[in-house]
């Protein structure tokens, strides 16, 4: 039977729009629907505006640091409303770019909610359309922990649209967003309480990095409440607009605003997925194979909705690979191995490859660690800005299995290191590379003294 579209993409985020645009460029008849905002989470309530907020927070400390270099810059209170207006202006510009790219590629856009009628038929804002192939790219949505009074706390999306910057904030969670927002608000002058159940923030990252970022946050005056969870949240204050959080260690905190950053879940609400026949995994995410194919052969899923690797560049890579495979006569798969990532804390951290703890499970590894004060802060005297750099090296092959960094420009530096790690560079390849002096980055190619060996016991077993 003839279909209305060769491909219909549900979701106009980074992964969905890349897939739709590339497929359309190959001549496919493509439809793409987005019900909230073009660009998805990353562009609107994620990495892009959050990076702008990080930069806003940094200017305050830079003004203070300038004194160490002979500049006397007067630092006034941060104008939250003026910044948010500029941020919104930039997000509007990016949304328009996303729409324009789809239009230029020849894809048809729908600003509407989508639900399945059957495996090939969709209700798109009341219009019935059919598609030979369908891609689910609806992303994820914040998850609120089941805490009494949770409705009194916000979610990360809300932080991008606050009318006023709170004087005191409680952030519950220890992941990417929690750490980043803690540093953002502290840098803007807010008193910050970060509450997380683990001994250290950023579970899953290399332990040295986790320890270093906790030390850096404490140096900024952020109150770290580790190993605890909120037991309930209450409204307080003359107008009921303050929040009191009772913690599992019997302490309580009174703040102006509370936000729960306790994870995200696949965004499948209202999709009527049962009508498609698509199966979910045990965690409630869409189950896919390495080629992004679901349990229904002509339906695919990419990005956060699969809960495989919840990073925007990964969703883009998946979407592009899928379009190449289906319409570009270039079958290929995106790889989840050695994907670089960063946390835009203050200072930022970045990583690629295996953490020491994971690499040690595979056999003996040589660990190289360097800690130092970056040149800038030898003059500013600012505490909590020490840099940590680390290499995890397979002892037998000398291949670099992981590279990790906390410090200024970590994300920019790690992008290049990621190429080397993905290509299988050895420690000797790093050693033979001449460093650029004076930079922090040169430390990655000048670390000669092994700090320790890990994984010996695991190998013996």
- What is the overall number of helices? 13
User: CATH-wise, what's the superfamily of the largest domain?
Assistant: FAD/NAD(P)-binding domain
CATH architecture identity of the largest domain = 3-Layer(bba) Sandwich
- Give the distance, in angstroms, between the N- and C-terminal Cα atoms: 60 Å
Structural class: alpha/beta
* Residues in helices, as a percent range: 25-40%
Beta content: 15-25%
Largest sheet: 7 strands, mixed
Domain count: the total is 3
Strand segment tally: 22
Q: How large, in whole angstroms, is the Cα Rg?
A: 24 Å
CATH fold assignment of the largest domain: FAD/NAD(P)-binding domain
**Uncertain regions spanning at least 5 consecutive residues:** none
Shape: globular
CATH C-level name of the largest domain: Alpha Beta
Task: Average the pLDDT over all residues and give the rounded result.
Answer: 96
């Amino acid at each position: 039977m003839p279909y209305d579209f060769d491909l219909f993409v549900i979701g106009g985020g980074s992964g969905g729009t890349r897939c739709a645009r590339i497929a359309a460029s190959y001549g496919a008849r493509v439809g793409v629907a987005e019900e909230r905002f073009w660009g998805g989470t990353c562009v609107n309530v994620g990495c892009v505006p959050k990076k702008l907020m990080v930069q806003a927070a940094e200017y305050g400390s830079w003004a203070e640091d300038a004194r160490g270099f002979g500049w006397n810059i007067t630092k006034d209170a941060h104008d939250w409303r003026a910044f948010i207006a500029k941020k919104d202006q930039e997000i509007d510009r990016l949304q328009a770019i996303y729409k324009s790219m789809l239009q230029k590629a020849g894809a048809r856009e729908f600003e509407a909610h989508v639900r399945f009628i059957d495996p090939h038929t969709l209700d798109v804002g009341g219009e019935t359309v059919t598609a030979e192939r369908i891609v689910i790219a609806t992303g994820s949505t914040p998850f609120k922990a089941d805490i009494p009074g949770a409705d009194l706390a916000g979610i990360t999306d809300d932080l991008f649209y606050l009318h006023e910057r709170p004087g005191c904030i409680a952030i519950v969670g220890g992941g990417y967003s929690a750490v980043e927002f803690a540093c953002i608000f502290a840098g803007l002058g807010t008193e910050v309480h970060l509450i997380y159940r683990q001994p250290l923030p950023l579970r899953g990252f290399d332990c040295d990095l986790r320890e270093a970022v906790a030390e850096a946050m404490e140096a900024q005056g952020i109150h770290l409440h580790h190993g605890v969870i909120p037991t309930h949240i209450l409204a307080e204050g003359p107008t009921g607009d303050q929040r009191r959080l009772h913690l599992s260690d019997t302490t309580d905190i009174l703040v102006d605003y509370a936000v729960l950053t306790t994870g995200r879940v696949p965004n499948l609400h209202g999709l009527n997925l049962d009508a498609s026949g698509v199966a979910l995994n045990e965690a409630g995410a869409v189950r896919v194979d390495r080629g992004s194919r679901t349990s229904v052969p002509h339906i695919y899923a990419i990005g956060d909705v699969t809960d495989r690797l919840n990073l925007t560049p990964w969703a883009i890579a998946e979407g592009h690979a899928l379009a190449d495979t289906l319409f570009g006569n270039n079958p290929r798969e995106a790889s989840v191995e050695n994907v670089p990532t960063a946390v835009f804390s203050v200072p930022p951290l970045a990583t690629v490859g295996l953490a020491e703890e994971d690499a040690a499970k595979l056999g003996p590894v040589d660990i190289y660690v360097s800690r130092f004060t970056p040149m800038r802060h030898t003059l500013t005297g600012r505490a909590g800005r020490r840099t940590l750099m680390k290499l995890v090296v397979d002892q037998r092959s000398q291949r670099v299995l992981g590279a990790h960094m906390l410090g200024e420009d970590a994300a920019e530096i790690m992008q290049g290191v990621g190429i080397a790690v993905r290509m299988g560079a050895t420690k000797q390849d790093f050693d033979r590379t001449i460093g650029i002096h004076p930079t922090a980055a040169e430390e990655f190619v000048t670390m000669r003294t092994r700090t320790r060996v890990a994984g010996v016991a695991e190998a013996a077993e």
